[in-house]
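Annex B. Sample input.
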Amino acid sequence: MSDVAEQLSPAEMADRCGISIDTLRYYEREGLLDTIERTAGGQRRYSSSDVAWVMILRCLRTTALPIREMKRFAELVRQGDDAIPERAQLLREHRAEVVDQIAALQEALDTIDHKIATYAAILESTPVVDTLSDTTPTLGGKGARAT
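Annex B, continued. Sample output.
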């Protein structure tokens, strides 16, 4: 059921949730959103409950949960409280995958930081070339020759 206090247009909904209108429509086409209320003129209107649900979907998508699993989760939510154990299990499994992703990203970040430090050390040990004088650096940046 929709919240009377909040009736957002598709553009307002997309903006509020930090997604594109195309993504919002995609979620609707894929059955990830329940039936969206419409005005008498047929325009979609979203409630604060819809916003909260899309924010959950956005979280799951940001953490790389496949669309098929998002659909499964949405179906489990529609089944009500009886499906809470399955919902919790799906989220526990996804959490473990996210933890692995974070560890892999941390390892990659450590490698990048190491390369940056290596390059900084090389740059600090390279002599500064005076580019404002009447000389130009030779190939390889070693020495100078008169122009």
